Every structure is written in structure tokens, then in C-alpha cells.
Amino acid sequence: MAYINLLPWRDAARKERQKQYLTILTATAVLSFLLVFLVNMVYSARVEGQLQRNNFLQNEIKILDQRIAEIRTLNDTKKSLQQRMALISQLQGSRNLGTQIMDEIASAVPAGVYLTQLEKKGTSLLLIGKSESNNRLSNMLREAEESELLSEPYLEFIEAGKDSVSLLSNFKMHLTVKGYEAVQGADTPAKPANGGAK
């Protein structure tokens, strides 16, 4: 007689498949959780690192802003000092300007030319005087043109003396004093006068 297995093998097989399915499902869930956790950890670490870098950069930017403000303050102080130095240099250069002008005029006025009045307004000079001849005034104009301190000589007029006995002509001349650069460069002594009464 043949042996017949009457046990519910189908139920046992179904239960075994269910166990395998639950095992696979549980393993998949655990692996998914671990994967999500690891990805979250990696991105959290990156975000944290980026935040730290941002904080570092912000602190460095604040330090640089403070240094820039200090540099601007130093630049303002430097400009102020440069302006003061330029003013002091101009004052130093023009300190002896009056003496230099008189010395230069004395060397430019030839013999036979006599000054009766000298006026200075800003950089302009007005010379009024008498001359024995027009040639002497021409020499004076040439001397003024060659001067290191004087420039733009302009003879406004020459007229004969009102007295018939007088041999002197009256004249009026304008001159310009060059800038302070020329004054500072004119440290060399002036040329001696060409003689004669001034």
C-alpha cells in the first residue's frame, strides 16, 4: 500500500514563504533606514562644515572691515599731513621772496635807469621810474626776460620829462613774479648789478 502524506504541506510552505518575505522586508527596511541615516549624517556634516566656514569668513570680513576703516583713517591723516607739508614748503619757499625780488630787480636795472616807485600786488610788480635813454630800458626788459624770478615784462609807456631842462624820460613797467617752484629753485645768488645809481 502506497504512503500518502496527509499533513498540510501547502500551509507549511505558505508560512515559510511568509517568514522569508517578512525577513527580506525587515532587512530591506533596516538597510533603508541605515542608508537614509548615513546620507543624513553626511549631509549634516557638510552643512555643519559650510556653516563653520561661513562663520569664519564673516569673522575675517569683520576684521578686514576694521582694517579698511583704519587704513582710511590713516589715508585721511596722510592727506592732511601732505597738505600741511605742502603749505609749509610754500611758506618756506616764499619766506625770502621779498628779498629775492629786490635783489633780482637790482640786477635787472641797468645804469642810467632810476626807480622812483615799486608796488607789488600778488604776483604782479609795478615799476615807475626815469631813464636816460630808451636803449637802457630795452636792456632792462631783456634782463627781466632772462631772470629766473621775473617774467612777462611789459612797458606801459615812455614819455619825455616835463621839464625842458631834464634829459630823463618817465616810464611805467609791469612784471610778473614766477611761481614758488622758481623761487625755491632760485637759491643761487643773483647776478651783480651793471653799475650805476638805482
UniProtKB/TrEMBL annotation:
InterPro entries with a match to the protein in the record: Extracell_DNA_Util/SecSys_Comp, PilN
Transmembrane domains' residue ranges: 21-43
Coiled coil, from the record: 47-84
Sorted UniProt keywords: Coiled coil, Membrane, Transmembrane, Transmembrane helix
Name of the protein in question: PilN domain-containing protein
Protein species of origin: Rheinheimera aquimaris
